[in-house]
Structures are given as structure tokens and as C-alpha cells.
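Newbie here. two chains, one complex. Structure please?
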Amino acid sequence: MDGGGSDRSQTPSYDSDVPEPGAGGTVILAPTDSYADLTQGWQGSLHEIRRPRHSSGTISEITNRSKPELAGEKQEREKDGELKDKLNELQVTDDEDLSLTSSDETTASKEDEKEGGQTAAVSSGPSASGLTVIESDSEENVQTEAWRSQRKHIFVLSEAGKPIYSRYGKEDKLVTIMGVMQALVSFLQDGNDSLRCLVAGKHKFVFLNRENLNLVAVAKTEDSYHQLLFQLTYVYNQIISVLTYTQLNKIFKQRRNYDLRRLLTGSEKFIDNLLHLMDHEPSFLLGAVRCLPLPSSTRENIAQSIVQNANVKDLVFAILLANNQLITLVRMKKYFLHPSDLHLIINLVNASESFKAAESWTPICLPKFDASGFLHAYVSYLDPGCQTCLLLLTVDRDMFFTLSECRQKIVDRLNRYNCLTAITEALARTSYSISQVGIADLRHFMYKSKSTAQYTSPELDAPYTTKEEQERLFGLYLYLHHRIHSSARPLKILFHVGANETLLGWMTSGFELYTVFGPLVTKTQAITSINKLLKWIKREEDRLFILNAPTF
Amino acid sequence: MSGSRVDMKIVLLGKEFGGKTSLVERFLHDRFHGEAPYQATIGAAFGAKRIEVVGKSLILGIWDTAGSERYEAMSRIYYRGAKAAIVCYDMTDSESFARVCFWVKELRNNEENCKIYLCGTKKDLVDENKNNRKVDYHMVTDYADEIRAKVFETSAKTGENIRNLFLKIAEDYTMDPVNKQQQEKDTLNLQEPTKKKRCC
């Protein structure tokens, strides 16, 4: 079934000295590996978060920059150290493989073994009996058939076991079930252990324990344990994005049994929307962003409009989005935007109608950038049809009117060069069809350039035109991604022949490629095809990727 | 609608789902989206409108803030320097009036020069059925006298009293001798650095 790298002559090769298609001269987003967020969650940020860098966070670093009278030599030195820290951090993210702790690896591999098996309790601690508890209790808590048949439940609860969020149903009606979850988690914590995953029949129960919050996924989808854990991390980051880590921590330090729902009022829809996007948009799975295909001259022109007209002090990021795709991103020199932070911004815009009515000014925390404080975002749509959304992120809370003037100047210049029309046209025509690629039997693909954290993918053509087929295709990608990134046995290449299609996944140091072929394609054919595909992407890279990263 | 040309800053405060955004929508664009689903405001939205009052033309800059509790800690960003605050309560929700007292205290402590206007919303629901009223009018007026504020009961759906509210706010502002002086001072200051004042 799987044709790994056994036959040398049949493996594709890519000259690693040549930059991969889509690799730009300058980096626009912080580069990522898949699961980078996750590994950091295990090793990096937890540690980092435990000692939040209050006064030395990125935000205060920028704020301090603008106060030269305060920036003595000592501070200069501190900044240097800070920067080195930041660089090291990036390095770690970059190089880190999926090296999880040993107990976790057994979890993952056992999980693999038991795939499709009837019932298996996998926990890293002494409590295999936990499973029976949750089974018997969930029967009492089962509400309705509709609730029970949801494919992926997500729950968030406080360390005291108070319900905070449930994807389906009213969380306050689920007090009992959440209590059970909390009991399971704390039982293992008492033994200095942690509960990570339970498998019962077709369901996976995945637990993420963060300081103050416990997150639980219960799913009977194609998602793997790591993929679910990754999604829970996103949910956690979404909550941080609304409150900041500092505030979250302060609240629970003061009152352990605080009802966090009070502070999250109105932001449940962000979590709902995020979960929906994660089930449909590959960008989260890939840790990458999709760019709106545009001629490079137009994109350059748009970037220039922003660089020239928004060159104001303390502006950190300027982002132009349309239909969940990135048009351009201008950043302050030295500072990078992490793809997962950009995903939260995309989610914010995607989930809110209220930005369409008026110019807005809102605090937003970007957990990867600085979990301890808020950036202030000026948000406004640029066109009457409300498709192109401009976000200007600054550390200065009093900059609204300055930024509002910048927006007007940007719009004026964009109109002078017909850029807004170009964007509208690019949005109206579908991005590109697989037939344009011109490779026989290639049905669909996803290509991610690792160094720029961007990906490209064609439109969904036949047979993936119905909702069911699209979900099935997404499931295939989940499977391919899971197998390639499996912590127990990571793969470089995977050739998988299924009943309806043949999959080929390929991972190099520069890119990740996931392809879906018709069922009858041979391995040799598939390899010839992906070499052609890479050439095609290289030819089109100007249009599909942002290759130059403009800065202020 | 550039911000620097706003003459007077007005801020709307109050519990979420109290109808602040609808009120602003009605005043700025004279429309009401009754059928659209509820959308919580994120952060704050800004809008401006020019109005004529006692022979003077004024541009009102209106900040429609999010009612959610998590923004309270940051609300100063929005109300700082405001000349008037419209503190809204939902006439069909007694809890929302409790929040009014919070905002009044907050403003009194931090923004002395900000005039307070208490504004009941969703009057159409109360007119439809008297039983919907959960906040007594006299109780509100008593409270308003105590804090020297004015009370308006409005409906964004019918538009009742909304223009009056803003006219009154603008009128109070222009009639206030402190602001008159301030305005003259401001214009003088503005004219000094620019040699030729051009109309754009």
C-alpha cells in the first residue's frame, strides 16, 4: 500500500541548493513547520508563558524604542538580549522536529496501532480506569441525538472545572460532563502525570492542559491526535487574543472559580468561526497563509501605497486581506508576524460583520507576537462592496485618527492605480483550476513553501463539488498530513493507493507537497507529474506568492 | 470625515445588546436593520456627522463602544476627552440599568468635563406592550437629577427622540461658555502655524 523510499530510482528528488518555488528573497511571515505551534506549546511557550515577560515583551520593546530619552545604554543591552532570545526562539521553532516526550510518543504510536480498534484507553498515567468513568457518565449527560451525533465537540473549562465554552449546546447545561473531564484531568495531575488522549470506539478524546484552562476535543473525524491537539492550541490562542495571557492569569490568580464566560461574552462566535475554518481551510493544518493571486506588479503597487502612506511611528503591521486571503503585509523592520497570529486576525475579520459598518478601533492580542499585551488595530474595509479589509496594528492606543487619515491616502492611491478594481477582479474570477496546470490525472494539490509560510492550492473542481466530497478530500489530506508528520514514524514521501484516489505526499526541507491523483495512476507516473507540477508552480510563483516582504 | 476636524467627541457606553450601534446607525444613516442578526461590536466603531445647531455648524465624532465587560478595563481609550457621554440602558432589561450606575461613576471619576445623557433604548418594545418595561421612568429621572444628567427614551426602530438627543447634546455644547472660549482658543492656535488657511 505504501511505497516509501525503498526504491531509489522511483523517488522524486529536488536540488536543495535551488530555492523552492515560492521562496522569496525576503521573508514575509515567520517560517513554520507543521505543528511548530504545537511543539512550541510543549516545550517553548509553556515555559515562556510561565514567566511572562511583562516589561520586556515585544510591545513594550517597540513602545520603548520611541522614547529615546529613556533608552539608556542598559536598556539597549536588554533589547539586544531580548532580540537574541527572540532569534533563538525562532531558531527553535524552525529546527524543532516533532520530538515529544517519550510517554507521548507511546500514546501516538499506540493510537496508530489501535486505529479502527474497538476500545482503547491510552493515557500516560496509572489511570486506565478513567475510560469507564467517562463512558458511563456521558450516557447520563447525553442531551439529544443531534448533540450526540456532532462529529467534533470542543470544550473549554477552567482549572476549577467551570464551563467556559462548548462548541455545541449551552455550556452551562454541560456542567456535569465538564466536571467529569476536570476530574479525569486532575486525577492524573495529582500523580504528576497528564492525560493526553483517550480512544473509545470511533471517538478520540484529546486533552490540552494549559495554565488556568483545560481544553478538550471529542471527535470522530479523520483528525489525528496531534491535529486535534493543534486545533485546541488555536482555541487557547483565540482566548488569549481576546483577553491577553496577563489578564487571564491575573483573573484566575485572584479568583480560581471565576466564571470566565462573563469576559468572553460576544467572542464565542470567534471560537465557533475558528473551529469552522479549521475544518475547511487547509491553511491552519499547514501553518501557512494563502495569497490572493495577483500580477506581481499590482501587488508591488499595493504594497507601495501602504508603505508610502502609512509610514507612521509605532505602526507594527499593515495587513490587507480579501476573502481570507492575504493581499499584502507590510511590517516594521525586525518584527515578523507568525502565521498563527495572522490566522487569528483572518478569523477576526471573517467572523465579524460589524467592521463593515464603520471604521473600528479595537484591542487585539497576538499570542505569538506578545501574549502579555494588546496591540491596537484600526480596521476598515476599503471598497463599498466590503471585500478588501485593511488592518493597521500599532502599539499606540491614541493613533486612531492618524491611521484613519492614512487609510484615506492609501485608498486614494489605490484608486489612482486601479488597484482596488484589480483586487475585485481577482476575487471574482476563481483563483485557478487544476486543468490550467495541465497534468493528466492530477485532481488536486496543496503546496506549501516553508520559508515563506505560504501555500497555494487550486479551486475544488469535479469530483469535489459537493459538500460530502469536499469533506472527504479534506479527510484525505488530514490523513496524508498525519502520516507524513507522524511523530512515531515521520515520512519524507508517502505514496498511498486508495479506493477512489491515489495520494502522494512529499516533504523536503523547503516545501511540503500534497497531491491527489486518480485511482489508476502508477508511482512512476505520479512522480513525473509532481516534477512537472513543481515546474508549473515555479513559473507561476510571482502571481501565487508574495515574494518580497515590504517593510516600513 | 477626518478625525482632526471633529469639533465634539461623543461616546456611547452601556451594557452589551443595549442597542448602542442601532442608535448610532439611525442617527448617522437614518436606517435600522431589524432583520439582521445581532452583531456584538468589537472594540469601538467611529462615525462622524455634521449638524446645524443654533446657527452653528458642528461636526460630531461619535464613538460607539463595545458593551462587553472585557473592554471595560480599556474603555478609557474611547471616552477620554469626550464632551458628552450617552450612557445607554435597555428599557426592557433591568440589569442594563445597573450598568448605567457603573459608567456614571467611572465617568465622574475620570472625565469631569464630560456631560452625561442617560438614554433608554428600545422604546418601541415598551410602547408595544407596557409589560415589557423593566426600568421605571421616574426612577431614572430621580437618578438623573441626582447626577445632574438628562434623560431620553428612544427607539432606533422608529427613530423616536434620537435626533432630539443629539441636537440637545450639540446645543448644550455650543451654549456652554467654557466650550465657547475653548473653541476660540482652538481656532486661534490652529491659525497661527498655517500661513494661509485653505478650504479643502
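Moderator note: The radius of gyration of chain A is 24 Å. The interface with chain B takes residues 242-243, 247, 262-267, 269, 348, 352-355, 357-363, 374, 376-377, 379, 397-398, 400-401, 404-405, 408 of chain A (CB under 8 Å). Thread marked as resolved.
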